[in-house]
Amino acid sequence: MSEKLAELINEYFDKDNYIIQTDTVENKEKLAVVYASSHNIYSPENEDGFIKCIVKKDNYEWFKTRIPFASKHIFIRDVSRRFYSFGINNNLNNLEKIAEFLKPELEGYKIITIGSSAGGTAAIMLGNLLNAEYVFAFSPIIRSYREDYPKDKIEEDLKNNKIFDITSTVEKMQTPIFYMYPAQSDFDVYTVNLIKNCQNIRFLPIECSVHGIPVNKRILRAIIGLNKKELEKTYKYNFDDSVNEYTFAKENWGLKMYFARVFDYVRKYPLFIFKKEFYNIMFKKEGKK
Predict the structure, then answer these.
(1) Domain range 3-283, its CATH number among 3.40.30.10, 3.40.50.300, 3.30.70.260, 3.40.50.1820
(2) Residue 264's Cα: distance from chain center in Å?
(3) In 3-state terms, what secondary structure has residue 132?
Protein backbone atom coordinates (compact mmCIF):
# COMPACT_ATOMS: atom_id res chain seq x y z
CA MET A 1 0.00 0.00 0.00
CA SER A 2 1.35 3.42 -0.96
CA GLU A 3 1.86 6.14 1.60
CA LYS A 4 -0.70 8.35 -0.14
CA LEU A 5 -3.37 5.62 -0.11
CA ALA A 6 -2.71 5.02 3.58
CA GLU A 7 -3.22 8.74 4.22
CA LEU A 8 -6.52 8.72 2.34
CA ILE A 9 -7.75 5.70 4.27
CA ASN A 10 -6.80 7.32 7.59
CA GLU A 11 -8.58 10.51 6.54
CA TYR A 12 -11.75 8.59 5.67
CA PHE A 13 -11.68 6.66 8.94
CA ASP A 14 -12.64 9.99 10.52
CA LYS A 15 -15.86 9.89 8.47
CA ASP A 16 -18.98 7.76 9.14
CA ASN A 17 -18.70 5.29 6.26
CA TYR A 18 -22.33 4.31 6.72
CA ILE A 19 -25.67 5.52 5.37
CA ILE A 20 -29.04 4.92 7.06
CA GLN A 21 -32.21 5.45 5.04
CA THR A 22 -35.83 4.82 6.05
CA ASP A 23 -38.56 4.24 3.50
CA THR A 24 -41.76 6.02 4.52
CA VAL A 25 -44.06 4.02 2.21
CA GLU A 26 -46.82 2.73 4.48
CA ASN A 27 -47.17 -0.77 3.03
CA LYS A 28 -43.51 -1.68 3.49
CA GLU A 29 -42.70 -4.47 5.93
CA LYS A 30 -41.05 -3.57 9.26
CA LEU A 31 -37.81 -4.97 7.94
CA ALA A 32 -34.29 -3.53 8.00
CA VAL A 33 -31.42 -4.63 5.78
CA VAL A 34 -27.73 -4.13 6.48
CA TYR A 35 -25.74 -4.09 3.24
CA ALA A 36 -21.98 -4.66 3.65
CA SER A 37 -19.74 -3.53 0.79
CA SER A 38 -16.96 -5.82 -0.41
CA HIS A 39 -13.31 -4.94 -1.07
CA ASN A 40 -14.44 -4.04 -4.57
CA ILE A 41 -15.79 -0.80 -3.08
CA TYR A 42 -12.87 0.76 -4.92
CA SER A 43 -10.66 -0.68 -7.59
CA PRO A 44 -7.80 -0.75 -8.34
CA GLU A 45 -6.42 -0.76 -4.80
CA ASN A 46 -4.43 2.41 -5.17
CA GLU A 47 -4.73 6.17 -4.78
CA ASP A 48 -6.46 6.67 -8.14
CA GLY A 49 -9.03 3.95 -7.44
CA PHE A 50 -9.78 5.40 -4.01
CA ILE A 51 -10.20 8.95 -5.29
CA LYS A 52 -12.44 7.88 -8.18
CA CYS A 53 -14.75 5.55 -6.20
CA ILE A 54 -14.72 6.92 -2.64
CA VAL A 55 -13.77 10.60 -2.78
CA LYS A 56 -15.64 11.50 -5.99
CA LYS A 57 -18.46 8.94 -6.16
CA ASP A 58 -18.89 8.20 -2.42
CA ASN A 59 -19.50 4.61 -3.45
CA TYR A 60 -21.45 2.02 -1.43
CA GLU A 61 -22.28 -1.38 -2.85
CA TRP A 62 -25.93 -2.49 -3.01
CA PHE A 63 -27.15 1.13 -3.05
CA LYS A 64 -29.05 0.51 -6.29
CA THR A 65 -29.79 -3.16 -5.57
CA ARG A 66 -32.00 -3.14 -2.49
CA ILE A 67 -34.35 -5.68 -1.03
CA PRO A 68 -37.63 -4.24 -2.33
CA PHE A 69 -39.91 -5.04 0.60
CA ALA A 70 -37.62 -3.57 3.30
CA SER A 71 -38.44 -0.27 5.01
CA LYS A 72 -34.99 0.56 6.37
CA HIS A 73 -31.69 0.30 4.51
CA ILE A 74 -28.27 0.55 6.17
CA PHE A 75 -25.14 0.62 4.00
CA ILE A 76 -21.66 0.14 5.46
CA ARG A 77 -18.19 0.01 3.89
CA ASP A 78 -14.64 -0.80 4.98
CA VAL A 79 -12.41 1.62 3.07
CA SER A 80 -9.32 -0.03 4.55
CA ARG A 81 -10.22 -3.28 2.73
CA ARG A 82 -9.21 -5.38 5.73
CA PHE A 83 -12.30 -7.59 6.07
CA TYR A 84 -13.89 -5.17 8.58
CA SER A 85 -11.22 -6.22 11.10
CA PHE A 86 -10.88 -2.53 12.00
CA GLY A 87 -14.55 -1.77 11.49
CA ILE A 88 -15.71 1.15 9.38
CA ASN A 89 -14.36 4.21 11.22
CA ASN A 90 -12.30 5.23 14.22
CA ASN A 91 -15.24 4.92 16.62
CA LEU A 92 -16.83 1.78 15.17
CA ASN A 93 -13.52 -0.01 14.85
CA ASN A 94 -14.71 -3.62 14.95
CA LEU A 95 -17.83 -5.58 14.04
CA GLU A 96 -19.01 -5.85 17.63
CA LYS A 97 -19.08 -2.06 17.98
CA ILE A 98 -20.87 -1.75 14.64
CA ALA A 99 -23.53 -4.17 15.87
CA GLU A 100 -23.98 -2.28 19.16
CA PHE A 101 -24.27 1.01 17.28
CA LEU A 102 -26.92 -0.43 14.94
CA LYS A 103 -29.10 -2.07 17.59
CA PRO A 104 -31.06 1.12 18.49
CA GLU A 105 -31.62 1.75 14.77
CA LEU A 106 -32.88 -1.80 14.32
CA GLU A 107 -35.13 -2.02 17.37
CA GLY A 108 -38.57 -3.30 16.38
CA TYR A 109 -37.39 -4.45 12.94
CA LYS A 110 -36.79 -7.87 11.50
CA ILE A 111 -33.24 -7.90 10.14
CA ILE A 112 -31.52 -9.24 7.03
CA THR A 113 -27.82 -8.84 6.34
CA ILE A 114 -26.30 -9.10 2.88
CA GLY A 115 -22.87 -8.92 1.25
CA SER A 116 -20.45 -10.55 -1.17
CA SER A 117 -16.83 -11.64 -0.66
CA ALA A 118 -15.46 -9.60 2.29
CA GLY A 119 -18.92 -8.03 2.54
CA GLY A 120 -20.32 -11.55 2.84
CA THR A 121 -17.96 -12.14 5.75
CA ALA A 122 -19.29 -9.01 7.48
CA ALA A 123 -22.88 -9.98 6.66
CA ILE A 124 -22.41 -13.36 8.36
CA MET A 125 -20.77 -11.88 11.45
CA LEU A 126 -23.32 -9.06 11.80
CA GLY A 127 -26.17 -11.47 11.11
CA ASN A 128 -24.96 -13.51 14.05
CA LEU A 129 -24.44 -10.50 16.34
CA LEU A 130 -27.79 -8.90 15.42
CA ASN A 131 -29.83 -12.12 15.49
CA ALA A 132 -30.92 -11.60 11.89
CA GLU A 133 -33.83 -13.43 10.27
CA TYR A 134 -31.36 -14.65 7.69
CA VAL A 135 -28.15 -13.76 5.85
CA PHE A 136 -27.45 -13.44 2.14
CA ALA A 137 -23.80 -14.39 1.59
CA PHE A 138 -22.33 -14.38 -1.92
CA SER A 139 -18.86 -15.99 -2.07
CA PRO A 140 -18.10 -15.02 1.54
CA ILE A 141 -14.54 -15.34 2.85
CA ILE A 142 -14.69 -17.80 5.74
CA ARG A 143 -10.93 -18.17 6.05
CA SER A 144 -8.63 -15.64 4.42
CA TYR A 145 -5.88 -18.09 3.56
CA ARG A 146 -5.23 -21.67 2.53
CA GLU A 147 -2.72 -24.00 4.10
CA ASP A 148 -0.87 -24.29 0.79
CA TYR A 149 -0.41 -20.51 0.39
CA PRO A 150 3.23 -19.39 0.07
CA LYS A 151 4.76 -18.57 3.43
CA ASP A 152 5.68 -15.03 2.35
CA LYS A 153 2.04 -14.39 1.30
CA ILE A 154 0.75 -15.45 4.73
CA GLU A 155 3.42 -13.34 6.45
CA GLU A 156 2.42 -10.32 4.35
CA ASP A 157 -1.26 -10.80 5.20
CA LEU A 158 -0.42 -11.15 8.88
CA LYS A 159 1.51 -7.89 8.69
CA ASN A 160 -1.49 -6.16 7.06
CA ASN A 161 -4.03 -7.70 9.47
CA LYS A 162 -5.69 -9.67 6.67
CA ILE A 163 -5.53 -13.09 8.32
CA PHE A 164 -8.71 -14.41 9.94
CA ASP A 165 -10.86 -17.53 10.24
CA ILE A 166 -14.57 -17.41 11.17
CA THR A 167 -15.20 -21.14 10.70
CA SER A 168 -16.04 -21.73 14.36
CA THR A 169 -18.51 -18.82 14.39
CA VAL A 170 -20.33 -20.17 11.33
CA GLU A 171 -20.46 -23.67 12.83
CA LYS A 172 -22.16 -22.36 15.98
CA MET A 173 -24.62 -20.02 14.27
CA GLN A 174 -28.35 -20.65 14.30
CA THR A 175 -29.16 -17.88 11.81
CA PRO A 176 -29.96 -19.29 8.33
CA ILE A 177 -27.37 -18.38 5.69
CA PHE A 178 -28.38 -18.38 2.03
CA TYR A 179 -24.98 -19.04 0.53
CA MET A 180 -24.35 -18.62 -3.22
CA TYR A 181 -20.95 -19.26 -4.73
CA PRO A 182 -19.21 -19.98 -8.08
CA ALA A 183 -18.74 -23.73 -8.22
CA GLN A 184 -15.78 -23.48 -10.60
CA SER A 185 -13.71 -21.19 -8.37
CA ASP A 186 -11.08 -23.22 -6.53
CA PHE A 187 -10.92 -20.80 -3.61
CA ASP A 188 -14.69 -20.74 -3.17
CA VAL A 189 -14.93 -24.52 -3.35
CA TYR A 190 -12.16 -24.72 -0.74
CA THR A 191 -14.11 -22.28 1.44
CA VAL A 192 -17.36 -24.23 1.13
CA ASN A 193 -15.61 -27.40 2.22
CA LEU A 194 -14.72 -25.71 5.51
CA ILE A 195 -18.39 -25.37 6.48
CA LYS A 196 -20.24 -27.80 4.22
CA ASN A 197 -21.79 -29.72 7.12
CA CYS A 198 -23.33 -26.70 8.84
CA GLN A 199 -27.08 -27.29 9.15
CA ASN A 200 -27.97 -23.58 9.02
CA ILE A 201 -26.52 -23.05 5.52
CA ARG A 202 -28.52 -23.38 2.32
CA PHE A 203 -26.17 -23.72 -0.65
CA LEU A 204 -26.62 -22.46 -4.21
CA PRO A 205 -23.60 -23.37 -6.38
CA ILE A 206 -23.62 -21.62 -9.76
CA GLU A 207 -21.62 -22.91 -12.74
CA CYS A 208 -19.18 -20.01 -12.84
CA SER A 209 -15.54 -19.34 -11.99
CA VAL A 210 -15.79 -15.65 -11.04
CA HIS A 211 -15.52 -14.92 -7.32
CA GLY A 212 -18.22 -12.62 -5.95
CA ILE A 213 -21.82 -12.59 -7.14
CA PRO A 214 -21.99 -15.34 -9.80
CA VAL A 215 -25.31 -14.22 -11.36
CA ASN A 216 -26.21 -11.05 -13.22
CA LYS A 217 -28.22 -8.20 -11.70
CA ARG A 218 -31.54 -9.35 -13.17
CA ILE A 219 -31.27 -12.72 -11.41
CA LEU A 220 -29.78 -11.15 -8.29
CA ARG A 221 -32.74 -8.77 -7.91
CA ALA A 222 -35.15 -11.68 -8.37
CA ILE A 223 -33.37 -13.71 -5.67
CA ILE A 224 -33.20 -11.00 -3.02
CA GLY A 225 -36.84 -10.20 -3.76
CA LEU A 226 -37.92 -13.65 -2.53
CA ASN A 227 -39.28 -14.18 0.97
CA LYS A 228 -37.76 -16.70 3.36
CA LYS A 229 -40.07 -19.58 2.41
CA GLU A 230 -39.38 -19.00 -1.27
CA LEU A 231 -35.64 -18.89 -0.62
CA GLU A 232 -35.81 -22.25 1.16
CA LYS A 233 -37.28 -23.71 -2.03
CA THR A 234 -34.80 -21.94 -4.30
CA TYR A 235 -31.57 -22.74 -2.43
CA LYS A 236 -32.21 -26.46 -2.90
CA TYR A 237 -28.88 -27.69 -4.26
CA ASN A 238 -26.23 -29.79 -2.57
CA PHE A 239 -22.89 -28.13 -1.89
CA ASP A 240 -21.09 -30.47 -4.28
CA ASP A 241 -23.50 -29.93 -7.19
CA SER A 242 -24.04 -26.88 -9.37
CA VAL A 243 -26.59 -25.30 -11.67
CA ASN A 244 -26.24 -23.29 -14.86
CA GLU A 245 -27.47 -19.72 -14.31
CA TYR A 246 -29.80 -19.83 -17.31
CA THR A 247 -31.27 -23.17 -16.30
CA PHE A 248 -31.65 -21.81 -12.77
CA ALA A 249 -33.58 -18.81 -14.12
CA LYS A 250 -35.94 -21.03 -16.11
CA GLU A 251 -36.52 -23.49 -13.28
CA ASN A 252 -37.44 -20.78 -10.80
CA TRP A 253 -39.09 -18.02 -12.86
CA GLY A 254 -40.02 -19.65 -16.15
CA LEU A 255 -39.21 -19.02 -19.80
CA LYS A 256 -39.77 -15.28 -19.60
CA MET A 257 -36.89 -14.87 -17.14
CA TYR A 258 -34.81 -17.40 -19.04
CA PHE A 259 -35.01 -15.54 -22.35
CA ALA A 260 -34.57 -12.19 -20.58
CA ARG A 261 -31.31 -13.50 -19.09
CA VAL A 262 -30.13 -14.81 -22.48
CA PHE A 263 -30.99 -11.43 -24.01
CA ASP A 264 -28.90 -9.67 -21.33
CA TYR A 265 -25.89 -11.72 -22.37
CA VAL A 266 -26.39 -11.33 -26.12
CA ARG A 267 -26.85 -7.58 -25.74
CA LYS A 268 -23.54 -7.40 -23.88
CA TYR A 269 -21.72 -9.88 -26.12
CA PRO A 270 -23.46 -9.84 -29.56
CA LEU A 271 -21.05 -12.31 -31.15
CA PHE A 272 -21.98 -14.89 -28.49
CA ILE A 273 -24.79 -16.20 -30.72
CA PHE A 274 -22.19 -17.50 -33.17
CA LYS A 275 -20.47 -19.65 -30.55
CA LYS A 276 -21.21 -23.24 -29.63
CA GLU A 277 -21.49 -22.27 -25.94
CA PHE A 278 -24.60 -20.21 -26.75
CA TYR A 279 -26.48 -23.27 -28.00
CA ASN A 280 -25.21 -25.41 -25.14
CA ILE A 281 -26.82 -22.92 -22.78
CA MET A 282 -30.01 -22.54 -24.83
CA PHE A 283 -30.73 -26.25 -24.99
CA LYS A 284 -29.39 -27.42 -21.64
CA LYS A 285 -32.45 -28.83 -19.92
CA GLU A 286 -31.58 -29.62 -16.33
CA GLY A 287 -29.24 -28.35 -13.67
CA LYS A 288 -27.89 -30.71 -11.02
CA LYS A 289 -29.95 -31.01 -7.82
Answers:
(1) 3.40.50.1820
(2) 22
(3) coil
Q: pTM of the full predicted structure? A: 0.90
Cβ-defined contacts of 215-220 (< 8 Å, 24+): 215/180, 215/245, 215/248, 216/245, 216/261, 216/264, 216/265, 217/65, 218/257, 218/260, 218/261, 218/264, 219/245, 219/248, 219/249, 219/257, 219/261, 220/65
CA–CA gap between residue 257 and residue 238 (Å, rounded): 23
Residues 6+ apart with CB under 8 A from 110: 29, 30, 31, 32, 133
Q: For the packed helices 217-224 and 245-253, what is the interaxial angle rounded to 10 degrees?
A: 40
Give residue limits of the domains in the chain. Answer: 3-283
How many CA atoms are closer than 13 Å to the CA of 76, on its beta-carbon side?
A: 34
Q: State pLDDT tens for residues 233-287.
A: 999 887 778 898 988 999 999 999 988 988 887 787 777 666 666 666 665 544 4
Query: Alpha carbon of 160 to those of 1, 47, 163, 214: distances in Å?
Result: 9, 17, 8, 28
Amino acid at 73: H
